[in-house]
Amino acid sequence: MATINNTNNSSASQSLHALTGESEGGTPGVGAIDFSKADGLVPAIIQDADTRQVLMLGYMNAEAYEKTAAEGRVTFYSRSRQCLWTKGETSGNYLNVVSIKIDCDADTLLIRVHPEGPVCHTGTDTCWGETNEAAETANPLLFLSELQDFIEKRKAEMPEGSYTTSLFRDGLNRMAQKVGEEALELVIEACNGTDERMIYEGSDMLYHLIVLLTSKGLRIEQMAAELQERHAPGWKKH
User: Fold this and answer.
1) Mind spelling out the 3-state secondary structure of 52-86?
2) Mean pLDDT value of segment 90-105
3) pTM
C-alpha cells in the first residue's frame, strides 16, 4: 500500500511539527493510480484523520486528484454534473487533506482529512447520518500510528534540514543513545520535576523510540500488541 502525505495547515501537521520540528511535505504522483478501470474515475473514501470515522465516498478523475494534492483540499469529480467540485466551495465545509493512501490494486483512495463542519449536504457529520466524535475527545493514542507513518516517510525520502533525517543518518547507536538520554531526563523530571515537564520529556522519549523502531523495521503497534498479549489471562513471562 502506498502512502502519500500532503502539506496543509491542519492540526495534524501542527502536531507533527510540535513533536518533530518538521512539517509534512511531498506531492503525490497521479501516475501511481490506475484510472483505467472505471471510465477514468476512482472511488475516494474520506475518513476523519483524528477519529477514524468514515465521512463520505466520492469519485476522482486524474484532474481532481492532482487538484486535491496541490491545494490540500479534497476535490471530487461530479458524475451527474460532469465537472470538478471542491467539497465546501459553496458551504464552506472544506475537507483539509492530512494524508492519501492508495490501495493494493491502485484503484481506490483512502483520504484522511480534517473536516470543517458537517460533511453531508443534509447537515449531518457523515453521509450515513452518523455523529463524528469531536477531534478533541478522540483517542489521542491513534496519533502514534500517524506519527510513525510520518517518520517512515522521512526515512524513505531523507529530506535535508530534517531532524529525523539526521537521526537516521547518525545510525542505530546514536538513535538508541537518544532513547536512553530522553529516558534519563524523564526519570529526573518524575523524581524532582513537574508533571508538565515529565509529560514533555516522556514525549521526547516516545518520539525517539518510534524513530528507533522505524530504523529496525518495527512498528509501535507491535509493542501495543505485546502489551495486549501480556494482559491476556494465562500469560507467562518468556
Assistant:
1) CCEEEEEEECHHHHHHHHHHCECEEEECCCCEEEE
2) 93
3) 0.56
